């Protein structure tokens, strides 16, 4: 790492400043004429809030930040795989009677789809969005939004077109079925999402949410999800649990099972209208 002490930087918030020190933990102290000393983390700040006048230092910081991100991703992937392996090892071995019961339950779901003649095949793409804590804000605002981070599950927002169907998954269950009212478009981060730490630039799609009368949990088809999930970029991990990413294209076979679960319960006309294209 180059010695950054004495380097001039530019901050959109504080103006021109000078790095006066950097600690062993890579915390930089920068002094600004108007506001005095402020502290920033190296190399993160060079990719988020400040820029060096020295192109070599700027490029080195950006490279170090990318290495840091890749290391973090690898550690997170290893952690998830360890958790999945633990769940697989601890999973109960089913008795023959339990296996037959699950088969019968799955057959009942599939028959519910086949016997419902009012529902036809759709040419629309079907996505599943894992909204988690942002579900309330996005449902209230009738949209989904993701930062332009370069990460595949955020960038997949640019695949959505008007008429596509979105499965809204949050808090361990399918909460709603939605229809895209427009193609995706660039949009700054909505003000109600300011507390989540994302960058301002992002992608947005306006939706017509159709809230389910009862949220639908997917644990009843978890074993099937394990067998049917795509090998890469699936919305579900190897243990059949929802991934931590935001937006994925839903596997057709898993979509049919989710459709069957939804149709087992009484739903509003709005839900049924969207399901007609599911």
Share of helix among residues? 25-40%
Helices and strands, in order, run as EEEEHEHHEHEHEEEEHEHH
- Give the CA-based shape: elongated
Mean pLDDT: 84
Number of strands: 12
CATH class of the largest domain: Alpha Beta
Number of helices: 8
CATH fold field value of the largest domain: ph1033 like fold
Give the class from helix and strand content and strand pairing: alpha+beta
Domain unit count: 2
* Cα-based radius of gyration, to the nearest Å: 24 Å
The CATH homologous superfamily of the largest domain is called ph1033 like domains
How is the main sheet built? 7 strands, mixed
User: From the 3D coordinates, which CATH architecture of the largest domain would you assign?
Assistant: Roll
Low-confidence stretches: 116-121
Kindly estimate the percentage of residues that lie in beta strands according to DSSP: 25-35%
N→C terminal distance: 53 Å
Please describe what this structure looks like.
By secondary structure, the protein is an alpha+beta fold. The chain folds into two domains: 8-67, no CATH class; 109-275, ph1033 like domains (ph1033 like fold, Roll), CATH 3.10.590. 35% of the residues lie in helices and 27% in strands. The strands form two sheets. Strands 6, 7, 8, 9, 10, 11 and 12 form a seven-stranded mixed β-sheet that branches. Strands 4-3-2-1-5 form a five-stranded antiparallel β-sheet. β8 and β9 form a beta hairpin. α3 (96-114) packs across α7 (252-263). The longest helix is centred in the N-terminal third of the chain and has 36 residues, at 55-90. The termini are far apart.
């Amino acid at each position: 790492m180059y010695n950054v002490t004495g380097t001039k930087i530019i901050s959109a918030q504080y103006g021109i400043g000078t790095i006066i020190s950097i600690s062993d933990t890579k915390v930089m102290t920068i002094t600004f004429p108007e506001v005095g000393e402020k502290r920033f983390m190296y190399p993160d700040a060079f990719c988020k809030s400040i820029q060096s006048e020295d192109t070599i230092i700027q490029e080195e910081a950006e490279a170090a930040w990318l290495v840091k991100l890749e290391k973090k991703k690898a550690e997170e992937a290893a952690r998830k795989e360890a958790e999945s392996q633990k769940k697989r090892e601890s999973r109960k071995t089913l008795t023959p009677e339990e296996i037959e019961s699950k088969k019968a339950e799955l057959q009942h779901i599939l028959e519910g789809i086949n016997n419902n003649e009012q529902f036809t095949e759709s040419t629309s793409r079907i996505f599943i969005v894992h909204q988690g804590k942002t579900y309330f804000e996005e449902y209230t605002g009738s949209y989904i939004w993701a930062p332009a981070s370069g990460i595949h599950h955020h960038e997949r927002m640019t695949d959505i077109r008007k008429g596509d169907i979105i499965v809204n998954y949050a808090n361990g269950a399918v909460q709603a079925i939605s229809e895209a009212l427009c193609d995706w478009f660039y949009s700054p981060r909505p003000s109600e999402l300011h507390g989540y730490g994302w960058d301002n630039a992002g992608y947005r799609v306006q939706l017509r949410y159709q809230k389910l009368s009862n949220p639908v949990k997917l644990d009843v088809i978890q074993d099937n999800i394990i067998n049917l999930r795509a090998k890469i970029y699936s919305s579900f991990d190897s243990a059949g649990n929802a991934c931590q990413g935001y937006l994925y294209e839903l596997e057709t076979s898993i979509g049919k099972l989710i459709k069957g679960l939804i149709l087992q319960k009484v739903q509003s006309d709005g839900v049924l209208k969207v399901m007609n294209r599911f």
